[in-house]
User: What shape does this take?
Amino acid sequence: MTDTIPLEPRSQRTQRFPQWLKRPLSQVGKAESVEAVLTDASLHTVCREAKCPNMGECFSRGTATFLVMGSICSRSCSFCGVQHGIPSPLDPSEPARVCDAIEKMKLSHAVITSVTRDDIPDGGASHFAEIISLIRKRLPQVTIEVLVPDFRGNTNALESVLFAGPHVFNHNIETIPRLYQSVRPQASYGQSLEILAYASRFRVDLRVKSGLMVGLGETREEIFATMSDLLAHGCTLLTIGQYLQPSKHQTPVIEFITPGQFDEYKNHALDLGFSDVAAGPFVRSSYMAERMITKV
Assistant: This one.
């Protein structure tokens, strides 16, 4: 018996969140200054574009996850709230603007992700590499975490990112293999595992990270099997969070996972051998990322 609360069929219900998914509004804190920095630098964040439920909290703590290469994705994964369509050309001034924002926000750990750019031969890998290199040159005290797309399995593209020297390499597996066709049809479970394995072999001190969404209809056993696959392919840091439907256009939530089940997932992953695991209803790939890298 799984420790979850199934929803009624979509046609018979409105979205009703259980108590553990209700949270108080975040304090304003540094949110206004973060918004000002991002606006002045004309930068996107995955926080806003993907409709992350933690945006207010993270902005109020003075942090954000940068979304580079535009705000329009060339893919249309059914779970994602980021707009998809035909992306704009890359902006050569963006790496410098990202560095400026990191400096103004006084970040000690910067997380950079991107939309998927299948329209570019290297998937935007050289753009990632330029950003990493510039941060290392201008802000050597800042640790860098990149959350990259799959680059369609292009290892030359992947190497350009790795050679630039990120401290944490993150590529999300997202879900269990059975659900790929409905949730992530333009990607490959096996290819994503190979990307993680390639990164883990590249440099012994590189931290390799991945993330899982739950609540899409997967079973406990399927989650455990995916954890084992990730660990076998060199992933040592793991995030597990509740999938929440960004809008009516994305795939619906199948079930809400209880805090007790998240604890079980975390403990199982740690028992398997992961170095650190963040698991909970509001956990996302970059949520409290600086704490995970500091702890490790």
Remarks:
- Residues 125-138 form the longest helix (14 residues).
- Residues 1-14 have pLDDT under 50 and may be disordered.
- The radius of gyration is 18 Å.
- DSSP finds eleven helices and ten strands in the chain.
